[in-house]
Amino acid sequence: MITLRGVTKRFTGPDGPLTAVDDVDLHVPRGSVQGIIGFSGAGKSTLIRLINLLERPDSGAVEVDGTDLTTVDDAELRRRRGKIGMIFQHFNLLANLTAAQNVELALRIAGVDKAARPARVAEALAVVDLSDKADAYPAKLSGGQKQRVAIARALANEPSVLLCDEPTSAVDPRTTVAVLSYLKEINQRLGITIVLVTHEMNVVRAIADDVAVMAGGKVVEHLRLDGSPLQPETEIARFMLDDRIRLQPRTSEATRVG
């Protein structure tokens, strides 16, 4: 469904060129849930934005549903992006629009006929159990409800791929469970391929079939989450699998008072 081959992305920083994604290969089978995990600065958010070409790679191929998106013209890219939904960390809802209007906005931008929009909006809100909040404004919604509106907005265009960039980072643990439950149901019931970026191993454990571990812009390890015991080979993967918090002793210089 999604195949990245030798994908590299560089940015120009104050200290010169920065390689955010470095020669990454990744294959995500149709209908699966792919986790991408790593610490801040590992390149995971840049990687997910390369899948729908919100960031264009400097080199490599980005194939979605058999087509290398780096080779198509702008009109074709816009059409194909319509089948790639995206959920962001901070919801990105417009405060002056109701939940239904926020969902409808995605359809309007995609050029969906006005007469067809109400049914699509209602269906998308029903998937995330927010039909009763259709007329509510974001200020009247909880964090979890806002994220569910964002999920509904991403589903309105009937995507085959759903990209999730830290979708649970702005909500509490209980809401995290609810959001992940909806995403898992969407995957299983609608067959949508999901790619989920996070820095929380418990998130990918709950929902993903496979996790790609990133460090320094590279995918350093893959872990198959099929219920068998995990045996990570890299130090970064072992660290992220360990849920315990260990405080490092502070140096005498750091702890000196006065």
UniProtKB/TrEMBL annotation:
Domain of life assignment: Bacteria
Pfam families in alphabetical order: ABC_tran
Domain ABC transporter: residue ranges: 2-241
Alphabetically ordered keywords of this record: Amino-acid transport, ATP-binding, Cell membrane, Membrane, Nucleotide-binding, Translocase, Transport
Presence of keyword Translocase: yes
InterPro entries: AAA+_ATPase (IPR003593), ABC_transporter-like_ATP-bd (IPR003439), ABC_transporter-like_CS (IPR017871), MetN_ABC (IPR041701), MetN_ABC_transporter-like (IPR050086), P-loop_NTPase (IPR027417)
A single MF term (Gene Ontology): ATP binding
Listed name of the protein: Methionine ABC transporter ATP-binding protein
